[in-house]
Amino acid sequence: MCVRDGRLLLACGKREGDGIPEWTLPGGGMWHGEDPYDTVLREVEEETGYRIEVTGLLGVHSRHATIPRRLGRSVDHHGVRLVYEGRVIGGELRPEIGGSTDLAAWHDLAAVSDLTRVGLVDIGLRLWRERPVAGRVPQDRDQLSTPEDER
């Protein structure tokens, strides 16, 4: 979660299957053996061009789902997402080169609800606004992520 001057930094990728563009928080998967702190620094720079300083851990979002795959198979998936807060300390805004996102941009906080976005954006905003002591927000059905949110 990088918020600056009332704007939120988001990255846009195309949803698998239908190719519809959706905004998401910059971030992504950890390499085997990589520390989560190093992952967020690397992923934000890859997806946005910015170098950030982590200013806090806002919370953890856990998601368990059965995800359908090809040939009638499905995968029992458990994703654990660490939502950090960060501050831009260098670099220049640019799209990711050869990766999963097509665009990075700042969006007014008041306009985020009008964007086509993944559920993690709303979860991140709740963590950022509410700063719950336990580092998690209750999950209603409306807040559960879809399999496409796993980027």
* Principal-axis shape: globular
Class per helix and strand makeup: alpha+beta
- The N- to C-terminal Cα distance equals 16 Å
Number of strands: 6
Report the uncertain regions: 141-151
Q: What is the helix tally?
A: 2
Instruction: State the helical fraction.
Output: 10-25%
How much of the sequence lies in strands comes to 35-45%
CATH homologous superfamily designation: Nucleoside Triphosphate Pyrophosphohydrolase
CATH topology: Nucleoside Triphosphate Pyrophosphohydrolase
Cα-based radius of gyration, to the nearest Å = 15 Å
What's the mean pLDDT score?
A: 89
Largest sheet: 4 strands, antiparallel
3D structure, described in words:
17% of the residues lie in helices and 39% in strands. A hairpin with a 6-residue loop joins strand 2 (7-14) and strand 3. It has one domain: Nucleoside Triphosphate Pyrophosphohydrolase (Alpha-Beta Complex), CATH 3.90.79.10. Strands 1, 2, 3 and 6 form a 4-stranded antiparallel beta sheet that branches. The protein has a two-stranded antiparallel ribbon with strand order 4-5. It is built from 2 helices and 6 strands, in the order βββαβββα. The chain is globular and about 45 Å long. Mean pLDDT is 89; it is low at 141-151. By secondary structure, it is of the alpha+beta class.
